[in-house]
Write a structure and sequence with these properties.
The chain is α+β, with helices and mostly antiparallel strands. The protein folds into 2 domains: 108 residues, 2-Layer Sandwich (YaeB-like fold); 380 residues, Endonuclease, Chain A (2-Layer Sandwich). Helix content is 26%, strand content 28%. It contains 11 helices and 29 strands. This is PLD phosphodiesterase domain-containing protein. Pfam families: PLDc_2 (PF13091). GO terms for molecular function: phosphatidyltransferase activity. It comes from Sorangium cellulosum (Polyangium cellulosum).
């Protein structure tokens, strides 16, 4: 007799959600086949971007040039500070100005290191990468503190921003890391208009002066203290102007980023082109409802995201946003490592910002910045850039496929067929019943590694098991509740029935983990 609490069949069931499968998307005919990406014209706002691995790191180069030109002060915000070249440039400037360098970054040593950047392609290296990144981050902050920079942090800090002398500024999707500058598709706007730079500086100052949680003043070494700042005078909200407006989220003080996003989406009549690291938790959120309304009124949409099938919030949100669209109305492309953020309506209105399409973070809390503009040269440059990302896409989105369809698209035959037994070690993170519940809830990927099989169960579990073909047994040798989400995999498990045993005493089913900072981007 089969124990239903310990046995699960992986077969032809239909999967709910938006999934990415290998293969370049078929772009609609209204997309030009050969855009020429590049910086926008040399006006007051210039779009800069990378489309993938680029050792020249043009975004870093633009930031270093900005810092080098500072004559009075530098404001810089980046949650993570793991790039040595930027650190050294800021340290030199702080010594030369005898201060004048103010940095918003993460100072709490318990902060999570996974800030949403795509992971390197080495399975099992996540913890080592995080550890090295943490060491580099705090070593860089120590260098800055010794040089005379003033360091503070704020809750839900996510803006990536540099303002120099209230004259020029840089708003970018890139964290201050070599991965962001040299590996990911990232973008940003170089702002050479003092009025706009001052507004960006004003947003930075509001957070630095009145919303910080920790600080380390200039000193011989890093000296982090938790503080409770004075709320300060009432905030003067930003005013929407044409052709350019600085927008932001500053906790509950400022929500112009949300207003600008809704205004741009609602203005679209023909097309809407966008890219972001993620779209999550948008059901009943104003941004999600606006995107659904755009689809309903016939707006054509091209969206570019990194291909990620394991995170349930992304799958569910993508299907809710675009799954009901008429055939050909919406194209969703999966471009690996994409971390850029941009939205363009009708080739005329553009928004470039530091957040994501995220109903949990960035529109009603935290610190994000952006720029909304109706300059034609900027719209053209940003639009061409997103189309280039779509042309470089290695995956396309499909909605509510069967498991067989998904597995066939990846091509690799399932290594398990028929009945198999999965043996958990004593003290396992999961009981047999809890693991079976996970196996039933999400698609399961596999990776062959010599005599081992790596089995990843969505965003919840990773099992590394030895394979005994004669006994048709998978013996779990190691496991983790933090799968390597960015690591490649061979295909999807199907056509098999797994009976889970072992694990010692029965353990309570683990609660479904909510993704907070992890995976934000």
């Amino acid at each position: 007799m089969i124990d239903a609490t310990r046995t699960v069949a992986l077969g032809p069931e239909r999967l709910a959600g938006m999934f990415f499968v290998p293969g370049a998307p078929v772009l609609p005919p209204w997309i030009e086949p050969d855009p020429l990406p590049g910086p926008s014209a040399a006006g007051p706002i210039v779009h800069l971007a990378t489309t993938g691995p680029d050792l020249n790191a043009p975004l870093r180069a633009a930031l270093l040039d900005l810092i080098d030109r500072a004559e009075e002060k530098v404001f810089l915000a980046s949650f993570l500070f793991a790039d040595r070249a930027v650190t050294e440039a800021l340290a030199r400037k702080a010594e030369r100005l005898r201060g004048g360098v103010y940095v918003l970054t993460a100072l709490d040593r318990s902060f999570p290191m996974d800030v949403g950047e795509p992971e390197d392609d080495e399975p099992g290296k996540r913890e080592q990468i995080d550890r090295n990144r943490r060491l580099q981050h705090f070593e860089n902050l120590r260098t800055l503190a010794k040089a005379g920079a003033w360091l503070r942090s704020a809750a839900d800090l996510h803006a990536k921003l540099c303002v120099v002398d209230d004259r020029v500024a840089f708003v970018t999707s890139a964290n201050a890391t070599d991965v962001a500058y040299q590996k990911n598709p990232e973008n940003g706007l170089l702002v050479r208009e003092p009025t706009l730079a001052r507004e960006l500086g004003r947003a930075f100052a509001q957070v630095f002066l009145h919303r910080f949680t920790h600080q380390s003043p200039p000193a011989a070494d890093l000296d982090v203290k938790k503080l409770h700042p004075d709320p300060g005078p009432p905030w003067r909200p930003m005013v929407f102007r044409r052709p350019d407006t600085v927008v932001a989220t500053i906790g509950r003080d400022e929500s112009s980023l949300l207003y600008a996003t809704l205004k741009l989406i609602d203005s679209a009549r023909r097309e809407l082109i966008l890219t972001a690291f993620s779209a999550v938790d948008l059901r009943e959120h104003p941004v999600g409802l606006a995107l659904r309304a755009a689809v309903a009124r016939g707006v054509r949409i091209l969206a570019v995201f990194p291909p990620d099938n394991r995170r349930s919030d992304r799958r569910e949100t993508g299907a809710w946003l675009f799954g009901d669209a008429p055939h050909g109305a919406v194209t969703v492309a999966g471009c690996p490592r994409t971390h850029a953020k941009a939205m363009i309506a009708d080739e005329s209105h553009t928004l470039v910002w530091t957040g994501n399409l995220d109903g949990r973070h960035g529109y009603q809390d935290g610190f994000e910045v952006g720029l909304a503009t109706s300059r034609p040269d900027v719209a053209s440059a940003v639009r061409d850039y997103v189309i280039v990302l779509a042309l470089a896409a290695s995956h396309r989105a499909v909605f509510n496929p069967t498991l067989d369809t998904l597995a066939d698209a990846y091509g690799a035959p399932s290594p398990l067929a028929g009945d198999w037994t999965v043996v958990l070690p004593p003290g396992s993170l999961w009981s047999p019943a809890a693991l079976v519940e996970l196996l039933r809830s999400v698609p399961v990927t596999f990776t062959r590694r010599s005599s081992e099989l790596v089995v990843r169960i969505g965003e919840s579990a990773e099992l590394i098991a030895s394979v005994d073909v004669q006994r048709r047994t998978l013996r779990v040798e190691r496991s983790s509740d933090r799968p390597s989400n960015g690591a490649p995999f061979d295909g999807y498990l199907r056509g098999c029935r797994l009976t889970v045993t072992g694990g010692g005493r029965e353990m309570a089913r683990p609660e479904k983990r909510r993704i907070g900072r992890r995976g934000r981007g």
